[in-house]
């Protein structure tokens, strides 16, 4: 088919049309050049699949799949309409739809690695979190919007699962179940992710109690149990309604560990399997318990998780995101005002709309915090960002200016929520990000 000069790419959903005028650009490059938010966690390397798009019209107007894309499509059982934006070039008009946007959508991509119609044994960490007496509390309190509180609750307890590369398996009544490591990862990483998610949930609930529910004289109490072990995972069920199913003793045990909180008035209990998966001295542990769960012939040892002994950078960053980006536009505006005050010459490097630029920046920062739980893609993602910044005319000298402006804006935005641990975590993270980017700058 003859190539069309300057084809049009239509982004369905945002109804934006752009002219494709550089044959060396992939669709991902076009999105970035036109300030269209488009996830690209691995930086266009055909490894993460977050840039995937659905081709709604003009499928034959794209370059064929590259080898990387072909392998990914086969492994994840994609139909031909799904393409990797970082791997395809345009020869004629196309209508596309970006498919991955939220953290929950990224995490769900792991489900594509699970077999259809059969179960496979995988070693995973399992987290059960239950709200005590929530239903009773909801019935007794007509003074506030229970639907609002419920939605807030599910968001704040779901986010820590998603932030830590976990998958929300199911909601059962007042309980949420998260799985960590269903598509791989080391035992240590998966257990650490689950423990970090548990602490993130606990802190978020405490914050909700102290800030939002205090006027209602209400207090949400949670019990969290975590376990690690081999479970059977598959997409099972009726041929027309298959769903993710995870079965095995470690799952039941995680549920019982959660329930054991009630007996000991605990908050977070971890199994010995979790405790032993991380180097000694990692966890701050409170009480220890020994119990025999129904159906088990052996005793189980449980540990009360209080925190990490050393500051966990990811936990601190995750905790701060909600307060930091409550008003993303305001954050970005304050940040860029500082940068331009410190280095007025830098202003000329920004050619496009500054409000859109600010949104891309905060989205990217949130994404980086989030992808710290998938470090395999982070380095290539930052390399890509570093190379594009070199093209924008950014030099090594600019990085310290951006770093100090960012730290000042973070401290201002966090206000009372700011703590030395948070500052330490953000400094460490930003130093890592900018050092990685700087490697590609003159
Ligand atoms: C924490 C480090 C930084 C992050 C996360 C970041 C993030 C971003 C993002 C997401 C974009 C949108 C385009 C793209 O994705 O390539 C962008 C563009 C840009 N950034 Fe950065 N950036 C950082 C550091 C810097 C530094 C040190 C400078 C130098 C002053 C800079 C100057 C620019 C410029 C000039 C553009 C292009 C704007 C335009 O075309 O109008 N950035 N940045
Ligand atoms: S696969 Fe395209 S950005 Fe990662």
Briefly, what is this?
α13 (398-414) packs antiparallel against α14 (420-438).
Helix tally equals 14
Mean pLDDT across every amino acid position: 91
Number of strands: 13
Indicate how many domains the architecture comprises. Answer: 3
What general form does the structure show? globular
The CATH topology of the largest domain comes to: Alpha-Beta Plaits
Helix residue percentage: 40-55%
CATH class of the largest domain: Alpha Beta
Major pleated sheet: 8 strands, mixed
- Specify the structural class: alpha+beta
Instruction: Provide the gyration radius in Å.
Output: 24 Å
CATH architecture of the largest domain: 2-Layer Sandwich
Q: What distance separates the N and C termini? A: 42 Å
Question: What is the multimeric organization of the chains shown?
Answer: single chain
Give the helices and strands as they follow along the chain: EEHEHEEHEHHEEHEEHEHEEHHHHHH
Question: Which band does the percent of strand residues land in?
Answer: 15-25%
InterPro entries: 2Fe-2S_ferredoxin-like_sf, 2Fe-2S_ferredoxin-type, A/G_cyclase, Adenylyl/Guanylyl_Cyclase_3/4, Beta-grasp_dom_sf, Globin, Globin-like_sf, Globin/Proto
Membrane topology: Multi-pass membrane protein
Main location: membrane
Subcellular location: Cell membrane
